[in-house]
């Protein structure tokens, strides 16, 4: 009798525990499924919502536009395009040049936000499109000019023509630091940014060309500048002088101020 009663109690207890375990399985996941997704979504939308943004800015490379996309919680990828144009006339060694500065640059940066706020450090690359600086001159007949320290005269029957351009490394490393995050991680849409840094564009490279005829004096020993080896040697010497005078520009400063809007 005692053995039968003990068996009954053990069976009843086992069924009760099984029922309690079954009820826990059927109710707890449902409540978890109801609460967790909404809570997780709310947290993401309130604290980490930035995805894509665009902006406009002005800098020492001119006016530009840029697009930024979130890469990680603390980093963005940013790309932009800048335009700067300027023209002026100047006299160099007796020749009156019509010069044009035409910056067309593309830049790409990897923005790193150490504290996931607005301060960032941005290594990147800068690329020049076309010829940044060009100059042309027609030297009137019998007017003197110098090349590599040697004086020549323009031939009245076929005046000398001078042309030149200055190029930098087509693609250069750059680094900037500043404040502002185009892709805000919160609900903020508009932003302002400020950056300062440098592009390491290499020493400027000058290319000079002389066409037409040059003379040793007014109408004396006139010949083609393009085919005379002495004239060509003096052109190379003149290029070296210009390159040396522009050596400090191998590091170009970057200072920019911009405005942005987060689209998503």
Q: What do these coordinates show?
A:
With 264 residues, the protein is of the alpha+beta class. It has two domains: 1-47; 69-171 and 198-253. It contains two helices and 15 strands. The chain has helices at residues 2-47, 229-245, and strands spanning 52-59, 62-72, 75-92, 95-112, 119-128, 133-138, 144-147, 150-154, 161-167, 171-179, 190-200, 205-211, 213-215, 223-224, 251-262. The strands form two sheets. The chain has an eight-stranded antiparallel β-barrel. A hairpin with a 2-residue loop joins β7 (144-147) and β8. The longest helix is centred in the first third of the chain and has 46 residues, at 2-47. The protein is elongated. It starts with a helix and ends with a strand. The model is unreliable at 1-46 (pLDDT under 50).
Task: Set out the fold topology.
Blueprint: H1 2-47, E1 52-59, E2 62-72, E3 75-92, E4 95-112, E5 119-128, E6 133-138, E7 144-147, E8 150-154, E9 161-167, E10 171-179, E11 190-200, E12 205-211, E13 213-215, E14 223-224, H2 229-245, E15 251-262
Antiparallel strand pairs: 1-2, 1-15, 2-3, 3-4, 4-5, 4-6, 5-10, 6-9, 7-8, 8-13, 9-12, 10-11, 11-15, 13-14
Name the descriptors.
alpha+beta; 264 residues; 24% helix; disordered N terminus; 15 strands; eight-stranded antiparallel beta barrel; 2 domains; four-stranded antiparallel sheet
